Every structure is written in C-alpha cells, then in structure tokens.
Amino acid sequence: MTAPLPKPETLSKERLRLWLRMLRVTRQVEAALREKLRLEFDSTLPRFDVMAALLREREGLKMNELSRRLRVSNGNVTGIVDRLADDGLVERIAIEGDRRATRVRLTPAGCDAFTVMAQAHESWVNELLDGVDAEDAHHIGELLHRLPADTGAR
Amino acid sequence: MTAPLPKPETLSKERLRLWLRMLRVTRQVEAALREKLRLEFDSTLPRFDVMAALLREREGLKMNELSRRLRVSNGNVTGIVDRLADDGLVERIAIEGDRRATRVRLTPAGCDAFTVMAQAHESWVNELLDGVDAEDAHHIGELLHRLPADTGAR
DNA sequence: GCTTGAAATTTTAAGCTTGAAGCAATTCTT
DNA sequence: AAGAATTGCTTCAAGCTTAAAATTTCAAGC
C-alpha cells in the first residue's frame, strides 16, 4: 500500500492554521510585555524598540536608518522620538554637512533607563516562553528562518 | 567526557532570540496581508478579523463576545463595528429582553464580501508561508501549542 | 418600590500606525 | 549656474488600540 495522497488543499489549510496560531501566540506575548512595560516603567513597546535600536549605536542613528531598522514608516518614528525627547531619553543632533538629516541618540539618562528595562524585558520573555527548552527554541528558530518572511532585507 | 554544562544564561538568551525572530516574521506577514487587503479590497486586518469571527455565527455575536474572541478591548470593537456598519457589511440588532446589549451580524452583502476576501486571504497566507511543508507546519504548531501563551482561555 | 451593585456598551484621552502630501536641503544634469 | 530630480524629515488624515471614565440597563436585597 502506498502513502496517502497529499491533498493539494490540505497544505494550504495547514499553513493557514499555523499562521493563525503564530498570530495568537505573538499577540498574547506582545500584550503581556506591553502591560508589563506600562505598569513597571510607564512605557510602551514602540518606545522600547526605538531605544533598543539606539543602544547599540552610541553615536546614534538617522531617522532614516531608525525607521528602516524597525521597519516602520518614517512618519511613525517622528512621533515616538518626539515623545522620547520630551522625556529627555533621546536627543536630536544636527548632522554637519547635511541640514536635512538629524541624528538621534540616547541621552545618558535614556541609556540608564533602557538598561534597566532591557534586563526586565529579557526576564519577562524568559518567563513567557517557559516550557521552551534551548533545543526547541533553536528548532523553531530554524524553521522560522526558512520562511520568505524572515529573509527580507534588514 | 561529560556533556557540556547548560549555562543558566544561555536558555534565557535563546528564548529572547526566538521571540525576536517570531516577532519579526509575524510582523512581516501581517504587513504583507495588510497591504494586500488595502490594495485589493480597500479593507484592513481588524475589519477582516471581525468579519471572520462573525461568519461562523450566523446569528451574530454580542459586542461582548466579539471583543473576548478577538482579544481586543471592547471600546476597540465599537469603532470597527461602527465603520463596518457604515459600509453596510454588518448590522446591529437589538436583543429582546436586554436593552443594554446588541447583537452584531454580517449582512448578506457582508457575507458575500467576506467570502471573497477569505479565499484570497488563505491563498496569500499559503504564498507567504511557502517553503513550509505540512510536516513543518504541524511541527511548529505543536511546539507553539506548548507555550503558556497559547493555553489561555478562548 | 428603592437602593445598591453588576453588566454591556460607548465615550474619551493618549498613543501607535500607515500612506500620502508637503517642505527644505542636497545632488544631478545640462 | 539654473532647473530638475532626489533625499530626509515632518505633517496630515484616517484608522487602530488601550485603559479608564461615563452611561444606560438590569438584577437583587431590603
């Protein structure tokens, strides 16, 4: 007896089911992280993302680069940086030789604040993904890495 | 020689890496779907989600139930349903015996419109998850299912 | 019947998000 | 060097999202 025929329809449904499950898990984790950030640091995920991107680049990033790294619209970054700057966590610095662009970087206060948040963030994720051992994590990561969606330009 | 010691730190980092990758893939797929919905149907993901929830329940759902199923705030659902109702795709129906609640259901036009969109949506997901065979899909699904985040109440 | 409390929904304020339009500065072309 | 296209950023309109406050209605308890 041969193996059962793979119905052409099944694969599509299976992928749809996987997508819905990924979406649900991701949203759940995001919601948990958002609430934690709000309650413990009176902050938000977008703010965290911006600060995370800036931490690595001590000389700062252009708005341009920031929006490309985070994969969000440039108009979006403007607002988030505005609010972070109001709070004294980041600062806009003029770029010599190009008066159109500005460089954004963490202030010392922003750097300190983010360091604390990042540590908490990692431990929250660690708790939320409880039950995933290193092997699973690595395995899922590999599978996800195969998706076209994970291969886009940085 | 014994197996390498599992550093306590490694697992946490590995989970963090997995989370960041899941987040990136999910956002990428969401962005693609959002754009498709906008260009081809002049619609949005939240509208799609609401209509999807309503399709199964031909008698409709209370705002209450809708917001619980979609896991979004009730105030949020109000706005989305408002706009769908403006477009004649859903309708609010009074519930006899309780003047506080309303039942929302797809209009025939909404039902037709969603059927077309749902078909396109499935094929988009199928393309976006190209490279994931049925076995992979099933496997990742199982792993995700183990997460505490996927075990919450429906 | 009246009051108190709970339930269903809407409203509100603040922030996030996008795509498109608008501005200013730079670079390219001729 | 003048005009044209490009680049970098902000502004804008519309919609999504949440948490919290406000409204209206229902359900008990007294």
Average of pLDDT of chain A: 90
Please state roughly what percent of the residues of chain A sit in beta strands, choosing from under 5%, 5-15%, 15-25%, 25-35%, 35-45% or over 45%. 5-15%
> What characteristic shape of chain A results from the CA principal axes?
elongated
Q: In oligomeric terms, what are we looking at?
A: homodimer
Strand order of the largest sheet of chain A: 1-3-2
Give me the CATH architecture of the domain at 42-148 in chain A, please. Orthogonal Bundle
Terminal-residue CA separation of chain A: 48 Å
CATH topology of the domain at 42-148 in chain A: Arc Repressor Mutant, subunit A
**Number of contiguous helices of chain A:** 6
Low-confidence stretches of chain A: none
CATH class of the domain at 42-148 in chain A: Mainly Alpha
Structural class assignment of chain A: mainly alpha
Residues in helix, % of chain A:
55-70%
Greatest contact pair?
Answer: A-B, 50 and 50 residues
CATH superfamily of the domain at 42-148 in chain A: Winged helix-like DNA-binding domain superfamily/Winged helix DNA-binding domain
- Helices and strands of chain A, in N-to-C order? HHEHHEEHH
Question: Would you report the number of β strands of chain A?
Answer: 3
Computed CA radius of gyration of chain A, to the nearest angstrom: 20 Å
